[in-house]
Design brief:
Number of helices: 13
Strand order of the largest sheet: 1-9-8-5-4-2-3
Strand content: 5-15%
Bound molecules: pyridoxal-5'-phosphate
Oligomer: single chain
Largest sheet: 7 strands, mixed
């Protein structure tokens, strides 16, 4: 029986080991651990990868979102619109900024939130809208354009799952006022710990973010605004610089895995598969299938050595942490159904054809047994 993890960081790390060791050694040699040379280099390289003028390295994706909201002027009394089906951190960052998170239900077709749904949640207090590029896919070009050209709010993209994703030929993180990335080890581009980046085209926003991540201090020991200690470590930037040149290929390899799943799992049981555009604009952070038999399938896969995941078992509005927001069960029915039915199959660049085939075969066998 094969053992297949949801994500495997060993292979990628060992393949790049000599370059990674050299990069870490360079930083140790210079001892510029805080906002050192590698941070500046990586910020420039990653911003370019995202078709952006500026990148500001920060300590995590959560902190990227938090600081982006502050740089957009969000605070108490403001509302920020976000999907009900996203990782906890999207909403937590809004609460950290002092604003009120306003959830909206996703659509069934691709689990993204349609522009008309985002608009329906708008009030006179709305300051920002956060489209989340869930699982590595983005809204279509005209939807994004209509969101970004709407002057009644600023768009902050949650790109934590979408490094290198594109829509209408433009990279994730280059559409909104800011794009927020995570370099958590399991993301499409992962560090050896926590890290994040905010991308923007605006020099004034870049400057604000540079102060916000560094105690609100443009000049040492002067603090005209409240800032935080939210910097990207030089060591993490050095690691990320080694991996960035391979990101495009990593995303293509994810795409290959997804195409194999799609070919093998079409018309199996009650499975609903994600739609994979052939041009690679969806970067497949996760391959989330949907079935009413999610619980038993998850168990069956585990018995056969396959670690599947659930992203996410609880929608935003039902987390205990947000119980003071006044949300109720049943308020976002699509998000609740997705939370009960989605299941993520293993996907990572180094997943072999044999392994992918084994996962697909095991899923098929589950539904064969079930139908008998
Ligand atoms: C991972 C993730 C975050 C948070 O990033 P961290 O680096 O873990 O803080 C935010 N939003 C989404 C959609 C994510 O997947």
């Amino acid at each position: 029986m094969m053992q297949i993890p949801l994500v495997d960081l060993q292979i990628q790390t060992s393949n790049l080991r000599p370059q990674l060791d050299a990069a870490v050694a360079r930083v140790i040699g210079r001892c510029d651990f805080i906002l050192g040379e590698e941070v500046r280099q990586f910020e420039a390289a990653f911003a370019k990868f995202c078709d952006c003028q500026y990148g500001v390295g920060v300590s995590s994706g959560t902190d990227a979102l938090h600081l982006a909201l502050r740089a957009a002027g969000v605070g108490p009394g403001d509302e920020v619109i976000l999907p009900a089906n996203t990782f906890f951190a999207t909403a937590a960052a809004v609460v950290m900024s002092g604003a009120k998170p306003v959830c909206v239900d996703p659509r069934e077709s691709d689990f993204l939130v349609a522009p008309e749904m985002l608009r329906s949640a708008r009030t006179s207090r709305t300051k920002v809208v956060i489209p989340v590029h869930l699982y590595g896919q983005m809204l279509d070009e005209s939807s994004l354009r209509s969101l970004c050209e709407d002057s009644s709010w600023a768009v902050i993209e949650d790109c934590a799952q979408a490094h290198g994703a594109r829509s209408g030929g433009k990279a994730s993180g280059s559409w909104g006022l800011m794009g927020c990335f995570s370099f958590f080890p399991g993301k499409n581009l992962g560090a050896f710990g926590d890290g994040g980046m905010i991308t923007t085209q605006r020099p004034d926003i870049c400057q604000k973010l540079q102060a916000l991540r560094n105690y609100g201090s443009p000049v040492r020991y002067e603090h005209p605004v409240l800032g935080f200690n939210n910097r990207l470590d030089t060591l993490q930037a050095a690691v990320l610089s080694v991996k960035l040149p391979h990101l495009q290929r990593f995303n293509e390899q994810r795409h290959q895995v997804a195409c194999r799943y799609e070919a093998e799992l079409r018309d199996v049981g009650d499975l609903i598969l994600p739609k994979i555009p052939q041009d690679g604009r969806h970067v497949l952070h996760l391959y989330a299938i949907r079935t009413r038999r999610r619980g038993t399938l998850l168990h069956y896969l585990k018995e056969h050595g396959i670690a599947a995941g659930i992203h996410y078992p609880t929608p935003i509005h039902l987390h205990g942490a947000f119980s003071d927001q006044g949300w109720k069960k049943g308020q976002f029915p699509v998000a609740e159904r997705l939370a009960a039915e989605v299941l993520s199959l293993p996907i990572y660049p180094e997943l072999t054809d044999d392994q992918t085939g084994y996962v697909a075969e095991t899923v098929r066998r589950f539904f064969d047994h079930a139908s008998r």
